[in-house]
Specification:
The two termini are about 15 Å apart. The strands form two sheets. Strands 5-1-4-6-7 form a five-stranded mixed β-sheet. Strands 2-3 form a two-stranded antiparallel sheet. It has helices at about 50-60, 85-100; strands at about 1-15, 15-20, 20-25, 25-40, 70, 105-115, 115-120. A hairpin with a 2-residue loop joins β2 (about 15-20) and β3 (about 20-25). The longest helix has 16 residues, at about 85-100. It is built from two helices and seven strands; from the N terminus they run ββββαβαββ. About 20% of the residues lie in helices and about 40% in strands. The protein is an alpha+beta fold and about 120 residues long.
Length: about 120
């Protein structure tokens, strides 16, 4: 097995309701997403995936969230865009475009601030 680790960034705004008494103000983050993708095989040239090709694909996919108000995206129609739910939504979105017989999105890390990172992954079956 091989693993590619790629870091991307995007700007997005959101507000969250943490309780009946507290709703945050609309605010923007520069979000950093670290993506972990495993590869089962390499090709005849010893390459699991052309790095630039995967980088471009991930960058294109993350644009779905860039410069957006997360609360208005269809993925958050029934979710409050907390760091946790945002990490899961991004994971599921990327997974649906990346996973195939050779590639598996293993986990993502979503950095919300310099000192706070939330990770999301699915339990192995």
């Amino acid at each position: 097995m091989y693993e590619l680790i790629e870091t991307l960034e995007f700007n997005a705004s959101h507000k969250v309701t943490l309780s009946a008494e507290y709703e945050s103000k609309l605010h923007t983050h520069l979000w950093f997403v670290r993506v972990y993708i495993t590869f089962r095989n390499v090709d005849e040239f010893g390459v699991s995936v052309p790095f630039n090709e995967m980088h471009d694909k991930l960058k294109s996919l993350i644009k779905h969230f860039d410069k957006k108000y997360l609360n208005e995206l269809p993925e958050f129609a029934d979710l409050d865009p907390t760091a946790e739910t945002t990490a899961k939504v991004i994971y599921e979105y990327l997974k649906s475009h990346i996973n195939n017989e050779n590639n598996t999105l293993r986990r993502i890390e979503l950095r919300v601030t310099d000192s706070r990172v939330i990770c999301y992954y699915e339990e192995e079956k």
